[in-house]
Amino acid sequence: MSGRSVRLRSVPIQSLSELERARLQEVAFYQLQQDCDLSCQITIPKDGQKRKKSLRKKLDSLGKEKNKDREFIPQAFGMPLSQVIANDRAYKLKQDSQRDEQKDTSDFVASLLPFGNKRQNKELSSSNSSLSSTSETPNESTSPNTPEPAPRARRRGAMSVDSITDLDDNQSRLLEALQLSLPAEAQNKKEKARDKKLSLNPIYRQVPRLVDSCCQHLEKHGLQTVGIFRVGSSKKRVRQLREEFDRGVDVSLEEEHSVHDVAALLKEFLRDMPDPLLTRELYTAFINTLLLEPEEQLGTLQLLIYLLPPCNCDTLHRLLQFLSIVARHANDNISKDGQEVTGNKMTSLNLATIFGPNLLHKQKSSDKEFSVQSSARAEESTAIIAVVQKMIENYEALFMVPPDLQNEVLISLLETDPDVVDYLLRRKASQSSTSSVLPAAVQACPQYPASVFTP
To answer: Which of 116, 164, 230, 242 gives 20 to 30 Å between its CA and that of 145?
Structure first.
């Protein structure tokens, strides 16, 4: 990159590498501490924290253990979000492995068919020659059960640089392709050791299969359904769907599935999460954004979202994207052919009222506790609804990373891992050259004129 400048532009947070997203958390945390007066302590939430069970949850768990029909380990409901995604990934890998085994077996059988036909017309010696010839054919195996080394394309990062330890001077100029990587799993080491294991590529989108399936189904079949999320569902059918997802069954939500059942299933999943999607650590910080000036609230919400673990951030993005689409169909309108289309009546306020308490809360309380502190609870509920409504209405902007923050991330990486900055900037330059979005100009940084640039 020597002698060149790079123009950074706002990009979706999902397009950043795993390493960049980890550093973005630190940059956002510093800015919140320095520039935002939220009147509360702010911490970066830990991924997959174990929580103490409340008495109500312990009783629920005890009741479930007594139910003979639930003699299995749940794969989705009531599990930490990171564990749900890990279960989904394990299921997908198992499916892919079975598919590959079936393909290898089919290829093996196909390779033997010509030999079987020849054997009917030739002598045994001639058949043996044919068998020998077949077994030496490239790309064919006579032993389908023999494991083969996993190709590079199946590993984290595919054919691109996957982590700092994979990067060397000879490779860095050749590796420009943008590939998806799976998230790093070892998180209990020191930060420097952790960073060495983080991928230099975007991580695989971490959204539970259940959430994505429900959102897709409702986007396809439920946008014109009046009172979606408010109308009652069949408890029996919802329980059946829930158990299928919990057993790891490959559930396919089709048109015959009631949109009200699917809507209830999505709400149950969010309600039963051990830690809410916006995390308990950031509860007060999210609420206190309402105390800021209106023009400061959105930027502060954006920084708080950057603090979320990637699985929470990606799932929140998918959910808010879906809720925004639902809200756009709230009012009656006229179709292209002149027909009146009834709206679903679910405005962003109505949706925030329904989903807010499940996305943002400190601790779920019993009905008795709720009545004792009804006044305080009502105020908190109003604040929660206002925060979630603002998120629904501005979800696209909230998950974009502006150039100045990207630059702070690169400078942070320059101080600890200067060898990766050149690679990351080359990729950004390649992406910018193919984009029609007008980027923000940046200047060369005197500390590292060959690679780092500041606004």
So the answer is: 116
**Contact of 320 with 211, CB cutoff 8 Å:** no
d(CA 25, CA 308): 8
Contacts with 228 (C-beta within 8 Å, 6 or more apart), sequence order: 218, 222, 259, 260, 263, 326, 344, 346
Average pLDDT over every residue of 28-52: 84
Contacts of 447 (CB under 8 A, 6+ apart): 414
321: number of CA atoms within 13 Å, CB side?
A: 15
Instruction: Measure the CA–CA gap between 160 and 189, rounded to whole angstroms.
Output: 25
CB 265 within 8 A of CB 214: yes
Structure tokens at 370: 């709720």
355-409 residue pLDDT tens? 999 999 987 554 444 444 566 678 889 999 999 999 999 999 999 999 999 999 9
Cα separations in angstroms, 128 against 105, 123, 138? 22, 9, 18
Most confident of the ranges 35-44, 85-94, 99-108, 175-184: 35-44
Whole-number pLDDT of residue 38: 93
All residues at 6 or more sequence positions from 16 whose CB lies less than 8 Å from its CB, including other chains: 24, 202, 401, 406, 409
Q: Is 104 exposed, middle or buried (0-12, 13-18, 19+ CB in 10 A)?
A: middle
Contact criterion met (CB below 8 Å) for 276 and 359: yes
Spatial separation of the C-alpha atoms in residues 441 and 365, rounded to whole Å: 51
Structure-token pair, residue 25 = 């958390």
Lowest mean pLDDT across 32-36, 56-60, 364-368, 445-449? 445-449
Per the DSSP assignment, residues forming a β-bridge with 305 are none
Q: pLDDT at position 165, please?
A: 55
270: nearest Cα among 348, 188, 214: 214
Between 81-119 and 124-135, two packed helices, what is the crossing angle to 10 degrees?
A: 150
| pTM of the shown model | 0.74
